[in-house]
Design a protein that fits this description.
Elements (H helix, E strand, L loop, with lengths): L4 E4 L3 H12 L4 E4 L3 H21 L4 H9 L1 E4 L10 E4 L5 H14 L5 E4 L6 H5 L8 E6 L8 E6 L5 H13 L3 E5 L7 H17 L5 H12 L5 H8 L1 H15 L8 H8 L20
Parallel strand pairs: 1-2, 1-4, 2-3, 4-5, 5-6, 7-8
Antiparallel strand pairs: 6-7
């Protein structure tokens, strides 16, 4: 797939996707509604690239080239002519449908509209546009510059051409694409979220401390990060939203969000991005 890539949403996922695309040599437009959010995304990309340089995974000149390929904008019109648009906004159906509809009106008829949704149905997202055959799920793992997997999810009306183009694009980014059917949570979150939810129940019921629960899963199950620390990385509000969607769509109690998770989100304990989740990140800042 040749041409500019537009990423909408400059948060953890969107800025990471923009970086990955730019590292693959694509010209990128990163769009968000406010300059403060764009500045956060810019800093996140700069920090990520600096870590790669420090580890020797990327040269300083190459990092500067990546930075130069990313433009920042507050209007999706700045990405007019893009071959691929990836939405990475809030995990909610109505805002995503509204955005995809706007992208459909703004971009050319040949543009692919991809959603980074982690659980919402691609078929329903595609019904918001004139060309549902050009809509597809392109679900990156968090953080995108580090994680190798991309779930490629085709809706009922997604064309073979769109699927093949996005599959090739994921490979061009150095990722491993996996074909997944359009079911709630796909594979990743359908398996992951019940584990995280059960870990939260263990914490709520006093089975063990957060540190102990995560240590059991890291050392006993060879997970690179414990489920509670992972929930903090994902964002507890996002974790709650995914579980609610899974519970509503699949109707099974194993997806019912733990009450402690709801309490933390109501308290504003959202994980790393707020400085407090199951762990207190403010105390670790020097």
């Amino acid at each position: 797939m040749k041409g500019t890539v537009m990423v909408v949403g400059a948060g953890q996922m969107g800025s990471g996707i923009a970086q990955v695309a730019a590292q693959a040599g694509r010209e990128v437009v990163l769009v968000d509604v406010g300059q403060d959010r764009l500045e956060w995304g810019r800093k996140n990309i700069a920090s990520s690239l600096a870590r790669l340089v420090k580890r020797g995974s990327l040269g300083e000149d190459a990092a500067r080239d990546v930075t130069s390929r990313i433009r920042y904008a507050t209007d999706v019109g700045e990405g007019r002519g893009a071959a691929l648009a990836v939405e990475a906004i809030v995990e909610a159906l109505d805002p995503k449908r509204a955005l995809l509809s706007k992208l459909d009106e703004t971009l050319g008829d040949e543009a692919v509209l991809a959603s980074n949704t982690s659980t919402l149905p691609i078929t329903e997202l595609g019904s918001a546009v004139r060309r549902p055959e050009r809509v597809i799920g392109m679900h990156f793992m968090n953080p995108p510059p580090v994680m190798a997997l991309v779930e490629v999810v085709r809706g009922l009306r997604t064309s073979d051409e769109t699927f093949q183009a996005v599959w090739a694009e994921a490979e061009a980014y150095g990722k491993t694409p996996v074909a997944v059917n359009d079911r709630a949570g796909f594979v990743s979150n359908r398996v992951l979220m019940p584990m995280i939810n059960e870990a939260i129940y263990c914490l709520m019921e006093g089975v063990a401390t957060a540190e102990a629960i995560d240590t059991v899963m890291r050392l006993g199950m060879s997970h690179p990060i414990g489920p509670l620390a992972l929930a903090d990385l994902i964002g507890l509000d996002t974790t709650l939203a995914i579980l609610e969607i899974l519970h509503e769509d699949l109707g099974e109690d194993k997806y019912r969000p733990c009450p402690l998770l709801r309490t933390y989100v109501r308290a504003g304990y959202l994980g790393r991005k707020s400085g407090r989740g199951f762990y207190d990140y403010a105390r670790t800042v020097s």
